Amino acid sequence: MSYIIPASAASWIPVQPGNDFPVQNLPFGIVKTPALPKSVGVALGEYVIHMTALFDAGYLKNLPFDRADFASDYLNQLMSKGKQACSDLRKRLFELFKVGGELKESADLYGTILLKQADVTMELPLRIGDYTDFYSSREHAFNMGVMFRDPENALLPNWLHIPVGYHGRASSIIVSGQPIYRPKGQQLPVENQPPVFGPTKQLDIELEMAFTTFQGKPLGESITTLEADQYIFGMCLFNDWTARDIQKWEYIPLGPFLGKNFASSVSPWIVSLDALEPFRIPGPVQEPKVLPYLEYSGNKHLDIKLEVILETEDGTENLISKSNYKHMYWNMNQQLAHHTVNGCNINCGDLMASGTISGTTPDSFGSMMELCWKGTKPIKLKDGSERKFLQDGDTIIMRGYCQGENFRVGFGEVRTKILAAK
């Protein structure tokens, strides 16, 4: 069963208002320092709970975890213990660090069990075996259809019947803070002329969320929408970089390839599904009615506020989009049910991205292609410059959080700088 930490709860570790990591959150990540190897960490305010040190101190007894589950390069080993074990672990952390909890504040905790976030390096949190990218925002799919097809038939015939997706490249998923190089490839700048080769001229973002899975069922078995929550560990921010001009030339007939596989960026903290439970909301009415295996009950959509910032080389932040994960047409339960309905097996640490998240207003679109409307409406920045697509030296920052009463459950940020093509 999920464990929801009371909204009124507080920790003896001070957490400033607006901080992404109150005791109601307790997200998991992989941290290291110059003196300490990679280890599982849990964020709490401005600190990281060093889980290996906490285990060594004897505070995690009577839980189904070994030291190796925490002294690991990735979260996969911890996640392999399953949903109930991870929920129980989060509950134990709350009991230790809440006001009046089992663990009392003392000076010797700082620098051992408690590390300052500013003193640790965040690593890629997962060993990602397989990565799937969905296409589940109706507004985004409609906008792209209007720009590139008949506006009267912007959505393709299958879009309202299935959560459309494709299998992406797991090896090029990188953690926040790691820069990317502008990708190169073939483009067709002039119709009916030979293609050219070179760096993309239309480098774009895609504002997304992603969820990661526990170990699934054996090959040949399906996960239902009712069961899906038991197979989802948590969520992170996801920037699915796109080279639009390379993609346009290559995607027919088999879909995305070099225009997508050069990099995708993830935030380092995985926020558990348990922490997100208080922010569930109803989803849109789905018409036409979906097939029975995609039907679901209860509130399976989430109210996650999202922002995209373009930072210029002088460090100036320009807010270019404000969106919300609630704009998803297809929810995670439906995505996972569809992914496995043919018997496809999922593994611990698989990553499933939402697809670009666009809202109903121009300032809530989730890609430069939409924000600048195919280059016809450039974005004006604070320094007087304009952007149709991204330039070398630009840094893209995505942030997200759920707002509760007097607290927020946040994801931190995913930040990536663009370097010139090699």
Structural notes for this entry:
The chain has two domains: 28-123, Fumarylacetoacetase, N-terminal domain (SH3 type barrels); 131-419, Fumarylacetoacetase-like, C-terminal domain (Fumarylacetoacetate hydrolase, domain 2, Alpha-Beta Complex), CATH 3.90.850. The protein contains nine helices and 26 strands. It has helices at residues 51-56, 67-70, 76-79, 83-97, 138-148, 244-250, 273-276, 332-340, 368-371; strands at 28-32, 39-44, 47-50, 114-116, 121-123, 131-134, 165-167, 173-175, 180-181, 184-187, 196-199, 203-204, 207-213, 232-239, 242-243, 264-266, 271-272, 280-281, 301-302, 305-311, 317-324, 351-353, 379-380, 386-387, 395-403, 408-419. The strands form seven sheets. Strands 6, 7, 8, 13, 14, 16, 17 and 22 form an eight-stranded mixed beta sheet that branches. A hairpin with a 5-residue loop joins β20 and β21. The chain is globular, with a radius of gyration of 22 Å. The termini are far apart.
